[in-house]
Write a structure and sequence with these properties.
The protein is of the alpha/beta class. Helix content is 48%, strand content 19%. The longest helix is centred in the C-terminal third of the chain and has 15 residues.
Amino acid sequence: MSTVGFIGLGNMGRHMAANLVSNGKDVVVFDVSSDAVNLLEGKGAKGAASPGEVAAQSNVLVTMVPSSPQVQEVYEGGVLANMKPGTLCIDSSTIDPSVSKSIAS
């Protein structure tokens, strides 16, 4: 079974990750708020200490953070260096498209 990593557990991300857990998916999560991580752990997700740790454990990675600088920080600060070859990355953040293109290159 593939593991879904979820980074960003705010108003939208928390519910999306919880839905994956309630539907039987293996989910590993990270957020800057430990309370958000603890909430999802209580629902059955596995908490991670960093975005890089999430990437290392996931086959599918969803990011949902507030803005372009946070997306760059997450990907350039550990995700890209730790993700497995072939990992599907889905960024659902509301960001400048040029940031997505830059990270992808």
